[in-house]
Amino acid sequence: AALVQSNYSLYAQDYLDLYLDVISQAVAEADPQRHYLSSSPSNGVAEKSHGFLSANPQSEYSGDVHHYDYDSDCWDVSVFPVPRFCSEYGYQSIPSVTTFQSQIPGEEMAWGSKLLEFRQHHPDGMAQMTKQIEMHYPLPNNANGTDAFQHMVYLAQIQQADCIRRETEHYRRHMGVQMEDGRGLTMGALYWQLNDIWAGPSWASIEYGGMWKALQYNARRFFKQQLVGLQVDSNATKIRVYVVTDTGTEQAMKHLSMSLTLRTFSNKIISKQDISLDAIENKAVLGDWLDVPAMLGGLPAASCVAVLEAKGSKINDPESDNVIAIEPLVPLKFTASGNFLTDPQISLKVLEQASAGAELTVIIEAKAIVPHLWVQIPDPTLVWDDNDFWMLPGRKKLSARRLQDSGSEDGAFKGPITLMSMYDVMQLATVDV
Question: Taking Cα atoms as reference points, which of 256, 400, 261 lies closest to residue 324?
């Protein structure tokens, strides 16, 4: 930065010569219909009036912005901008043990290992991930040890997916909605990044080798053409339902009838609210804020979750259920007022006959609400139809499909299948109060 400032006029002219005189002209000749932006972030069409050297290329009132903030609480959406388009944002995580196994020795599979730090190319990246995890989830007592590595992989991927989900849904809630100060009308969000070129800490949602992280599964949900979601305010005192409908959503329901319940982790319903919203194409429709303390009737917010169900839907249907924690699942909140998490007694059964088009089908059963259930299979060629989900008591059917050649002679999936949830991690985290 100091070099640029000391030679600003030189670099500014080089930038204009390259991106305006050379690249812009080449694009215009090759594809006259193609819109061209000289940089990103930028002020969009307003860049021309600024001589393509805007004093504030991160303006929220025109063009696009980039946003990276690893220190603020991602559950507090007020830390996010409200731009016309956010073309770059993200959080880091680390890849699975399966991906690491072919790259680093077992003794280096630890959160605090020198080799993992060596593969971390973002300054303070490991500390920033740990900080976000500690804000929202239980941290194992021996977080830096090899025994806890599998749990730290799980937590890092859950926090990455959750932070990017919350930021993406924030942008989508401003689709077609303008704030009093002129910000809003957000018509695009593009997170960084899709895939990796090696095994190491990164912003990617698909690991080197093809394994899907929790973020990739979540992206299929938060980027649905019609998004029906829940938002809790930063103080955990208010909650509301919203619906975002993209243009050209052929099967989007115009009138949605839903049921919002607040429940304990044992699935006891504390309160219920029927809600109806009219969906409008190319626009976010926000429901009224509801008072959480009044709905809980004196119960601590950390003891309950919010469940939104479309009327007539089936239990554990990923297309219709929306479950979120009202407060972060940090152990201090739980230990201070009681252990709210109930042992879900999860069981898994592999069906002998897979569903049509699927390589593998399983049935999962649970007797209590399961926060962030992760179904792991050490085969990067297989992808589940759902993962990293909140499971309600009952049965859920999951199928895995092969996206690429497994490389094995018989084509059979590589086991074993393992389950992990926030309940498992909580057992490794103790807090003195």
Answer: 261
